[in-house]
Every structure is written in structure tokens, then in C-alpha cells.
Amino acid sequence: MRQILIGLALAVTMGGAASAADYIVVNSSDPAIRRGQSLDAGDRVALGAGKTITLMRPTGEVTTLRGTANGVTVPGARVAAADAARFETLRALVQPPPEGRTFGARRGGICPAVESLTTLDDIVRTAESSGCKTVARQALAAYLAKRDAPQAN
Question: What is the mean pLDDT of the chain?
Fold first, then answer.
């Protein structure tokens, strides 16, 4: 019985660690802040004056922050129970792809044209189901390029 309780406690602890954050760093002019890094609303980020970071929520909302001498605070309120799988898929697409040759990366089917993936839902679905991560990465880059992110401090 004791082992079951310990296992349950560990599962609850690990489940909390897997919850999604509020934002994904999609671009940064500060080398200390990596693409794909997770941030929560209200986090304080040591972003120096003249540096910028662009953040995206799993919903597709894009925000660009400009650094100050005192850093910046990530805006917005915490989001309730974001879809952790969607967050992780987007985070994987934002991070640099693995270097070298990967075998079996495409699991069959034909990848859709990048231009046809215009919504975040289409991009995530393509990355998750058809194994066309390269196309999904390109579509996400185009999606982000179209967003004219408001400037915040």
C-alpha cells in the first residue's frame, strides 16, 4: 500500500511539471534567451536594453518585448490549463531542427503545401499527424512573419 501511495505522489508531482507554460520564445536578439524556451505570464526576464524577444501563446497570440536596463516582465494573465500537447508541438517546431540526417522522419503520405497551412491548428495537425515537421516549421515561420506583433515593455 505504501508503494502505491509513493507512486501516486510521484505521478502527481510529475504531472504538474508537465503542464504547459503561457508563452514560447519564437525569436530573440539576446543569445541567453533561446528559441523554444517556455515562459509564464508575470515572469521577470533579464532582457537588456536594445534587445528584443518575440513570444507566442499556444493560441497564436504574438507579442514582442523590448528590453530595458531592469529587464522585462512577461505580460498577461496566466492561462488556465493550456493544451500541453499543442504547446509541446509548437515548442518543438520553434526549436532548431536536429542536425544531420534523420531516417523515418516522414511516416507516409504527402506533405501539404506550406501555403495551404494558414492557421495554427493546421500547422499543429500537420506536425502531429502526417510527420511533415519540416513543412510545419516553414508554415509556422510564415505564420509568425505575418503577425504584426504589438510592441510592449
Answer: 78
Say how far apart CA 18 and CA 130 lie, in whole Å.
24
What whole-number distance in Å separates Cα of residue 151 and Cα of residue 52?
A: 10
pLDDT in tens, 26-40: 999 999 999 999 999
Predicted pLDDT of residue 23: 92
- 104 conformational bin, left if phi > 0, alpha if psi -120 to 50, beta if neither: left
Residue 33 has what pLDDT?
A: 93
Return the HEC string of the chain. CHHHHHHHHHHHHHHHHCCCCCEEEEEECCCCCCCCCEECCCCEECCCCCCEEEEECCCCCEEEEECCCCCEECCCCCCCCCCHHHHHHHHHHHCCCCCCCCCCCCCCCCCCCHHHCCCHHHHHHHHHHHCCHHHHHHHHHHHHHHCCCCEEC
Q: Which residue has the cell 541567453?
A: 32
